[in-house]
Structure formats: C-alpha cells, structure tokens
Amino acid sequence: MRKNREVDRISLSYLNLQTTKENRGNIIVFFLVTLDLIGVLPILAIPFSYNFFIAMIFPVACLHLWAIMYVIAPYKYERSYYLFFGIYGLINTYVYFLVIQKLLYSHLFIQGSTAFIAGIIFLIALIIFINWLNIRFLYSGTYANLQEKKTSKNVAPITAVAGLGYVIAQLVLTFVYSASIKMAILIVVLSILSVVTAYFSTFIHRYFFILKNEEIVKKVRPEFGLPKKFRKNT
User: Which letter does DSSP use for residue 113 in this model?
Assistant: First the structure.
C-alpha cells in the first residue's frame, strides 16, 4: 500500500501541468525570442553560410508549421503539446550548436572537422545527461519533495554542474582556436541557453508519461485535452 501511495505521489509531481494559455504564450515567446532571434537570425546573418543555412532550415521550418496548431487550437491539442515542446527543445539546442559552429568556422576561420565532431559529442552528452537527470529526479521523489518542500537536497548545484560541463567544454574549444574574448562571451551565453533548451527536451518523456497515466491526468485535470467548447473553466 505504501508503494502505491508513493507511485501516485511521484506521478502527481510530474503531472503538475501548465494551462493551455501558458502553452500558447510559451510558443510565442520561445519561438520569437529564444529560437528565431537568438538562434535563426545569427545563422542568416553576414557572413552567410549556405551549409549552416541548409543544416538549420528544414527542422526549423517544420517546427514552425507544427507550432501553428498550438497557437490556433491549444485546447484541442493540449496533450501533444508536450511532445511538440520537447522536440522544440531538441531543435533549439541543435540550432544553438550550429550558431556556435558558425562562430568558430565563419568568424574565427578554423579549419578541419575536429571542432565540429567535438561539438556534436558535447551536444549529445548534454541532451542525454539532462534527460537522465530528469528521470532520476522524478523516480527518486525529488520533484515530489520539492513541491512539498520536504527535501534537504539542493538540486540547483546538481543542475548547475550538469550545464557547467557543457559551458566549459565549449569555452575550452573556443580558446583552442582563438583567444578572442568577444567570441568566448558569445559562446558562453549560447552554451548557457543550450542548457535551458536541452531541459525543454525532457518534455518528450513527460508526454509519454502522460499517455501512460491518463487516468491520473483526468483525475487531476478532468478537462485535459478537450476542445475549448467542452470546458467549463477556460
């Protein structure tokens, strides 16, 4: 019985979901600022690189088309929003990776594939570690304890360390090829933002968690996933 109660407690901590209005607002803010302004615009900026543009345009264009349904009908597609936002996190992190690579290759004029391969390894490691950390926090009850304020564990340093490794790796990569302080600052900022967007990729796991626990979701949010006209409180 105690185990069942603990599972429910853990599930409820992960199903503390956003409202549909917050979902729509997230798309507008994160797309216009975090993705388009900070990510896409530098790829399009001078010096323009056709290779980086091609590597960026298809996933970004598909993501923008996909986002339309959550702006137009956020209530109807409330469930799949979590899958969408997780994929957004992956793509935004990937776009930041491309921006960093453009700074290295088009502004610092480095040669060879070493920096690109190293960047790919750092990117994959960041995504895997953040998602592993998310699952560990969930099933260890850390999220539940935080919501109930019963934990003595401070997760902020743990999360900071997770991102610090990625930031340091990118910074070292920059100084291997150049001592430019300006480029180092830009890459540090992009690396920090990459940690944030990498965390958004954990919404993919949350989406599948919602699918597996729909009966709990309906108890907590009976109107979850229904079109707006079928909801009493909108």
Answer: S
What are the structure tokens assigned to 210, written together?
A: 């919602």
**Counting Cβ atoms within 10 Å, is residue 102 exposed (0-12), middle (13-18) or buried (19+)?**
buried
Cα separation of the two ends of the chain? 36
**Token digits of residue 91:** 């793509």
Integer CA distances (angstroms), 167 to 22, 119, 159, 190, in order? 29, 11, 13, 9
Work out the percent of the chain whose per-residue pLDDT is above 70. 83
Q: Identify the CA nearest to 82 among candidates 27, 9, 146, 7.
A: 27
Q: What is the pLDDT of residues 91-122, one digit of tens each?
A: 999 999 999 999 888 877 788 888 899 999 99
Q: Please state whether the peptide bond connecting residue 74 to the residue before it is cis, i.e. omega within 30 degrees of 0.
A: no
In this prediction the pTM is 0.85
Token reading at 131: 């998602």
Q: What is the pLDDT of residues 186-206, one digit of tens each?
A: 888 888 889 889 999 999 999
Residue 41 CA to residue 47 CA, distance in Å, equals 12
Cα–Cα dist 130/159, whole Å: 8
- Write down how long the chain is: 234
Which are the contacts of 46, defined by CB distance < 8 A and separation ≥ 6?
A: none
pLDDT at 207 over 80: yes
